[in-house]
Please model this.
Amino acid sequence: MLSLSRRQLLAATSSPLVLKAAGTHADLPDPNFDLRTFFVSWGDTTKPQFTRFLDEVKPDLVLAGFYGPMFHGYADNPASTGYMMRLPVPGQREALAAQREVNNQIHARGLKVMAHFQMINVIQKGGGREDNFAEFWDKYWIDEILGPKPHPDWRELMQRDAAGDPIIRKHYVDYHGFCLNSPPAMQLLRRMLDIALDAGADGIMSNYNYRWGCVCRHCQDDFKKYLRAKFSLPQIKARFGISDLAAHKFEKIAGEIPGVPKPDAPPLDWEAMHWGAQNFKQRWDELLIGHGRKRKPGLILGQWNHLGDVNAGEERAFTPIDQFGKGENFFWYSGGYGPTKLAEHKAGDAWLSCLWVRKMTGWKPFVMGKYENIRMRNTLAEGYATGSSGMGLQIQFMDPVGFEAASRYLRFVREHHDLYSNRQVWAEVGLVYPREAVWNKHAEAVDAFRAIGRALTDDHLLFDVIWDQKMTIDRLTRYSVVIAPGAEWLNEKQRAVLSAAESKSVIVLRGIDAKAVIADLSHRTLSRASAPWTLRVAGYNTRAGYVLHFVNYNRDEQEGAKKKGPAAECPIPCEDINVNVRMPEKPKQLRLLSPDANSHQDLQWSHATGRLLFRIPKVEVYSLIHIVT
Model:
């Protein structure tokens, strides 16, 4: 175990380590774009409860309505009113009219609406029709909506295999997928995007952002162009065994999104992953930034992707760090699946995943979509505590219990806007995400990142995620301790940054397991809360003072099993929480606030030798401690 030097001991009792959040985003039309409250409805948008909920909570952004290839290809199927789009009515004309009216209702309340744009997947088989997209092409194409067909053969728009056949992927139903390198596909996507904007969408959330290994002539040409730009012809021959690139025909281009190759995959497969990510971002930008923002300059843009539990092969795994989310306002990641399995030490949380997204997106707004309709308060609290804009999909506003709980939480954030805006992270430990290790064929380093991140979370430490590809000495010296799993696979420059941080008295822990981390940190004078592992803690500095967020995941699972929906949350309050934080400045007041109690109270506290001590009587699901200095 490392001992503390005098300089390190002084650092450990200095001011709370506050890490600046990105204040403005120069890549956006509005550099100060921000939102704190977000509401998505996947269906039920024509019900009175929908508009009543909007009136009650006044969210900063509403995500509603479906557009794009899947919508047009499936809307005339009666099954389109069910999963996956839950359209108000079937039929392209009828559904567009209904969605336009929903957008008008949202605008009438002074709110903005973002639209789902399912830009890749189209249904090949499902919902009672044998070949849905082909049938749409032949029987349901409407010229006055879509204009003339961009190509006589719909297959020319699709991702295709080496035999020239459209690729089929299975997920609930069978899908084909648009190829973004196909000129007729991009032509049709531009027209479909125009339709969404004409219907009143203020923003576009693209989903099904996939690439399936297409080897059509357009992908062949673009991959060759990429290889020629990066390597000389002799290098291409030596590395990939391709003697004549111009004449070469790829039977496979392994740049799949999402995905990560096996460690022993050929070098060309790894190179294809980098090409696939860059190519997708380029085409996405051409469509949504180039065309979309030309039509509507302030267009709000985002992608809906899937992280799971910090999955090394998520959709953006190989996107260059300087292109990650560039020009995008808002991020949706699905992850943190529940419900709880507390006996197995599973809180059904996405805490670490949210910190991952928060750091990678540079503090742009994001939401974590969790596929669970029970723990609404818990999920909302988790999102707000980790810096996001709430939750995705599962606000059960059609359920009276869900309506009341969600409206109470969203109103709380709106009423305490000053505690959620212009936040800077208060963190004492930095955990490095090993993206470079993944690129160097060692995705197992992400397993260590997850295990250590969970241990830090369970131990109630104030920590933040660091991206290895963005590490600087200035960033690392803002922490007392930096943990770098996978440090052996960093490049030379990144290793030098870690060493330089050590020379400035930052404790750097490399290549260690979760138990070793916690054992080491237990001897250090860091801020802590004495509570069960089911409590989570995050800290921020705001213009109004320091704020600590506490989220309780404990619940009565047996009682919950007897109920349905939000009524089954059944939280078990966490009581008598003792908190000891590093804070040299004597505070003026400590306020406890919670949407669960809809009130606030002043707390008793003591302050000495640079430490602030206080006790929280109870956290039902979500509480804030506002430290006024």
